[in-house]
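Quick one, C-alpha cells below. Sequence please?
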C-alpha cells in the first residue's frame, strides 16, 4: 500500500509540541476536514507529541496520506525512549498515573478512526488518523507535494499566539456545547412526554399480545384435545365398519352393506376434517417444525402412486407421474411435501371425470427451486375463484359439488405448508378444460448438511428400515405420525407386488403388514416371506382381532387396529432391538395425561399399559408383569393412595417402584405418607414446565425403575 508523505517535524524543544498541533490543524484543513475534525486531530497530535517530548526527551511527528480505500490521513509519533510499561493496563483503565500518562493514549484511540501503537524497550511508535471525507479531492504524490510546499510558505505561529487561538477554539466549542445542551434539555423534555405515551401504548400492546397468545394457545389446545377426543371413536367406527364389510361376522344384505359403507365414508371424511383442523392450527400457532432430510423425487412419487391408487377405482382416469431424471436429491421435509402433493392429487381426481391427472417435477436451476405441477383435465375453476379456493372452508359451487365431499381446508393448509417450506403454491385454470396447481420449494431447506450422497448413504446405513405393507391411507398416516421422530426409516408398499419389489432392494429390520390387502386375507404372505429368505421379525396389525391366527401363521407379534402410537413404537422397539422392554403402567382417569406420559415413556424404550382408575390398575397387575407405575391421586372409584396401600400390603408388589404423578397440592401429611410407603412424587405441572424426556429419566431412575 503506497503512502504520500507531507511533512516531518522533529521534537527538540517544548515549543515544537505547539508547532505539531499547528501543523496538524493546517494539514487537516488543506486535506478537506471540517473545523471540528481539525480540532480533534490537532488535539490528539499535541497530546501525543507532548508525551514523546516529556517522557523520551524528543522524537518526531510525520504527517502522511495512506493510499487505501478510502484514503487515510495518518499522523506518526515516534521516539527512542524506554517504551511504555503496563500498556495493557492503560488501555483497560487499570493504570493510575499522577502525570496523566495513559489518558492521552485512551483519548486519542477514542477520537480517531485508526490507532496502532508499539512500545518496546527501544522506543514508542504510535500511528493514528482519520479517513478522508468523501467530498475531499483524492491525494496523490503531486497533491501531497503541493500541500507540503504551501506549508513551507506559511509562517510558523508563536507559541503564545497558538495558545490564544486554542483558547478561542475552546471558547467556541464551549458555546456550541452550551447551545447543544440547551437543545438537548428541550429534546429530553419532549422525549419524556413522548415516553409516557409510548409506555402506556406498550403496556396496552403487551396486554393485547398476551390476550392473543392466550386465545391462540386456547384455540390450539382446544383443537388438539378435540381431535384427540374425536380420533379414538372415529378409528373405532372405521375399524368396525371395515370389519362388517369384510363379513367377519356373517353376510350383509345389500341395504346393510350400503348403510355401513355410508357410515365408513362419513367417519373417514370427519377424520380428515379433524386432521386438517389440527394441522392448520399447529401451523398458525407456529408449532409445526420442519424436519429436513435427503430424499429422491422418485421415492415420494412411488409412495404417492401406491397411496392414491384406491381413489382411481371406478374412475375413467389415468394417474401419470413424470420426473426430470436430472433432479438432485432434495433436502427438505419429505412428510410435508408428500402431504401437499397428496392434497393436490386427491382434489384433481375428485373434480376430473375423464382424462388424466399428470404430476410432474422439474428443477429451476437458476433459482435453486424444484417445481411440482399437478395438472388435470377436469371441470376447471373460474378466474374469480382462483384465490378464493385457498381460503379456509371455501368450497366453490360447481356441477360435481354434490358428488364429492371435502373440508375446505386442504388447499389453505397446503399453501401454509408450502410457505413454511420457504416456497409457494398457486393455480391456473380454464373452466371446462382443467386446472394446473404449481408448487415451488427450494431444493435445499435451511442450512445444508455435508453432501446429499453422503447423507443419504449414511441415513440408509445407520437407520433401521421398517417396511409397512398397508393399503389403507389413514393407517399409513397414523404410522408416519407415530414414528416420525423415531430412529427408523419407513418404507411403504400398498400391494404385495410392491412389497416383493421393496424386499429385493431393501434389507428391512422389520415387516409390519396388514392382514387384509385389497380385501384379501394375506396371512399366506408370511410363509412366502420365510421361503424367500427374509428372517427378520414380522408384526401383523389388523382390524381382524385374531392374534392366535397371525402368530400361528408365522408372525412374531400382533396388534389390533386402531393402534395406540406409543404401543406401536414400544412393540417395534422390542422386535427390532431384540430385547424385552420394561413395562410401566400409567394409571390416570385423564386420557390426555395417559397419552402424553405413555408417548414419552415409549420414546424412552418402555412398554406402556394403561388403566383409568384404581380398580382397573389392580386388575392390570393381576394379569401382567409390571416393572413400575405412574399413579394419579384423584380418581373415581378408588383413589391413588388406596392403590398404593394395596400394593404395599401385597408381598408380590410391595417393592414395586411407584411414581405419584398428580396435579393435587399434597398436604404435609400426604407427602409424609407417600414417602413412608416408598413412592416418589413427580407433579404434573413439572412435566408441563419441562416438557422433555430428560426430567422423566431422572424421576424414573430416582424411583428405581431400571432399563
Amino acid at each position: 500500500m503506497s503512502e504520500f508523505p507531507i511533512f516531518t517535524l522533529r521534537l527538540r524543544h517544548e515549543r515544537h509540541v505547539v508547532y505539531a498541533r499547528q501543523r496538524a490543524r493546517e494539514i487537516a484543513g488543506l486535506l478537506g476536514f471540517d473545523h471540528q475534525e481539525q480540532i480533534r486531530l490537532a488535539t490528539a497530535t499535541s497530546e501525543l507529541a507532548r508525551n514523546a517530548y516529556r517522557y523520551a526527551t524528543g522524537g518526531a511527528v510525520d504527517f502522511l496520506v495512506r493510499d487505501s480505500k478510502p484514503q487515510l490521513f495518518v499522523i506518526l509519533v515516534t521516539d527512542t525512549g524506554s517504551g511504555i510499561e503496563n500498556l495493557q493496563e492503560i488501555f483497560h483503565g487499570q493504570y493510575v498515573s499522577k502525570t496523566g500518562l495513559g489518558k492521552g493514549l485512551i483519548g486519542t484511540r477514542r477520537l480517531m478512526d485508526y490507532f496502532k501503537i508499539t512500545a518496546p524497550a527501544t522506543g514508542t511508535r504510535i500511528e493514528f488518523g482519520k479517513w478522508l471525507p468523501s467530498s475531499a479531492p483524492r491525494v496523490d504524490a503531486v497533491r501531497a507535494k503541493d500541500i507540503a510546499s504551501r506549508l513551507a510558505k506559511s509562517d510558523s505561529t508563536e507559541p503564545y499566539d497558538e495558545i490564544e487561538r486554542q483558547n478561542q477554539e475552546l471558547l467556541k466549542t464551549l458555546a456550541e456545547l452550551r447551545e447543544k445542551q440547551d437543545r438537548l434539555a428541550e429534546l429530553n423534555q419532549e422525549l419524556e412526554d413522548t415516553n409516557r405515551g409510548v409506555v402506556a401504548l406498550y403496556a396496552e400492546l403487551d396486554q393485547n399480545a398476551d390476550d392473543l397468545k392466550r386465545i391462540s394457545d386456547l384455540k390450539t389446545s382446544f383443537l388438539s384435545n378435540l381431535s384427540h377426543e374425536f380420533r379414538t371413536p372415529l378409528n373405532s367406527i372405521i375399524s368396525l365398519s371395515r370389519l362388517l364389510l369384510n363379513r367377519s361376522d356373517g353376510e350383509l344384505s345389500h341395504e346393510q352393506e350400503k348403510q355401513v359403507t355410508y357410515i365408513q365414508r362419513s367417519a373417514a371424511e370427519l377424520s380428515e376434517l379433524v386432521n386438517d383442523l389440527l394441522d392448520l392450527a399447529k401451523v398458525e400457532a407456529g408449532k409445526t417444525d420442519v424436519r429436513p432430510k435427503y430424499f429422491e423425487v422418485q421415492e415420494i412419487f412411488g409412495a404417492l402412486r401406491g397411496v392414491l391408487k384406491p381413489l382411481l377405482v371406478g374412475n375413467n382416469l389415468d394417474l401419470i407421474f413424470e420426473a426430470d431424471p436430472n433432479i438432485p436429491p432434495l433436502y427438505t421435509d419429505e412428510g410435508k411435501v408428500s402431504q401437499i402433493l397428496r392434497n393436490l392429487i386427491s382434489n384433481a381426481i375428485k373434480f376430473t371425470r375423464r382424462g388424466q391427472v399428470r404430476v410432474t417435477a422439474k428443477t429451476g436451476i437458476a433459482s435453486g427451486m424444484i417445481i411440482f405441477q399437478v395438472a388435470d383435465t377436469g371441470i376447471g375453476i373460474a378466474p374469480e375463484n382462483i384465490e378464493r379456493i385457498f381460503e379456509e372452508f371455501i368450497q366453490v359451487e360447481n356441477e360435481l359439488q354434490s358428488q364429492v365431499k371435502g373440508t375446505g381446508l386442504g388447499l389453505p393448509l397446503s399453501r401454509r405448508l408450502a410457505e413454511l417450506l420457504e416456497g409457494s403454491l398457486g393455480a391456473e385454470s380454464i373452466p371446462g378444460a382443467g386446472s394446473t396447481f404449481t408448487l415451488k420449494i427450494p431444493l435445499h431447506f435451511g442450512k445444508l448438511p455435508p453432501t446429499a450422497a453422503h447423507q443419504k448413504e449414511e441415513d440408509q446405513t445407520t437407520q433401521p428400515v421398517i417396511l409397512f405393507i398397508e393399503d389403507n391411507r389413514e393407517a399409513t398416516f397414523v404410522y408416519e405420525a407415530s414414528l416420525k421422530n423415531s430412529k427408523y426409516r419407513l418404507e411403504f408398499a400398498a400391494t404385495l407386488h410392491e412389497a416383493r419389489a421393496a424386499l429385493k432392494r431393501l434389507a428391512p429390520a422389520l415387516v409390519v403388514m396388514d392382514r387384509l390387502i385389497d380385501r384379501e386375507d394375506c396371512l399366506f404372505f408370511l410363509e412366502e416371506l420365510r421361503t424367500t429368505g427374509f428372517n427378520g421379525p414380522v408384526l401383523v396389525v389388523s382390524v381382524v382381532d385374531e392374534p392366535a391366527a397371525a402368530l400361528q401363521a408365522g408372525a412374531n407379534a400382533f396388534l389390533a387396529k386402531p393402534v395406540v402410537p406409543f404401543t406401536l413404537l414400544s412393540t417395534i422397539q422390542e422386535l427390532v432391538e431384540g430385547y424385552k422392554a420394561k413395562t410401566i403402567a400409567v394409571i390416570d382417569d385423564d386420557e390426555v395425561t395417559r397419552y402424553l406420559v405413555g408417548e414419552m415413556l415409549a420414546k424412552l424404550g418402555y412398554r406402556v399399559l394403561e388403566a383409568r382408575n384404581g380398580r382397573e390398575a389392580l386388575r392390570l397387575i393381576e394379569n401382567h408383569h409390571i416393572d413400575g407405575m405412574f399413579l394419579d391421586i384423584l380418581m373415581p372409584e378408588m383413589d391413588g393412595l388406596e392403590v398404593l396401600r394395596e400394593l404395599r400390603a401385597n408381598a408380590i408388589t410391595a417393592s414395586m417402584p411407584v411414581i405419584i404423578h398428580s396435579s393435587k397440592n399434597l398436604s404435609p401429611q400426604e407427602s409424609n405418607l407417600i414417602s413412608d410407603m416408598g413412592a416418589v412424587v413427580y407433579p404434573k405441572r413439572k412435566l408441563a414446565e419441562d416438557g422433555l424426556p430428560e426430567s422423566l429419566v431422572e424421576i424414573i431412575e430416582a424411583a428405581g425403575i431400571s432399563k
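The domain at 580-707 is CATH 3.40.50.2300 (Rossmann fold). The two ends are 68 Å apart (CA to CA).
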